[in-house]
Structure formats: structure tokens, C-alpha cells
Amino acid sequence: MGQVNVNNPGPAGPAEPVDGGGTGLGFIVGILLAIVIIALLVYFLVLNKPATGPANNGVTVPSPSAAMLRTFG
């Protein structure tokens, strides 16, 4: 017994997939999400200044480096 093709094309030939012509909602949501993430990274890593307040007389104090944490003596 030979092989039988069960996916016979219709009378008009094989069906072509229909292209909607759009990029799709998932693509647009992905682009918007990427823009929001990049904006948050820029804000927190570049634009965000350390808070000043009465505890340090309005002076911004940088976080200590490893050299400053070393004990002398």
C-alpha cells in the first residue's frame, strides 16, 4: 500500500496565508515596554540625584568607596 496525501489542495490550488499587513499588538506593546524600561534606567542611573536634607545640612554625601572603608592604625 502506498502513501496517501491527506492534505489535498482545494479546487483553486493550495491556500495562501493571508497577510494582515499590520505589525500586531504584541510588537507595539513590546516597543512601548522597551521605551519605558529605557526611560526608567536613564532616570535612575543618570538623572536621579541623591536626596539632600537637614540630616547632613543640605550637602550631598557620596557613598564611601572601598578605600575609605579601610581602617588605619
Strand content: under 5%
Q: What's the number of helices?
A: 1
Helix share, percent? 25-40%
Q: Unreliable segments (pLDDT under 50, ≥5 consecutive)? A: none
The whole-number mean of residue pLDDT values reads 74
Got a strand count?
0
Query: For the terminal residues, how far apart are their CA atoms?
Result: 94 Å
Structural class: mainly alpha
Indicate the radius of gyration in whole angstroms.
31 Å
Q: Per the principal axes of the C-alpha atoms, what is the gross shape?
A: elongated
**Describe the biggest sheet?**
none
Series of H and E elements:
H
List the helices and strands and how they pair.
Blueprint lengths: L24 H23 L26
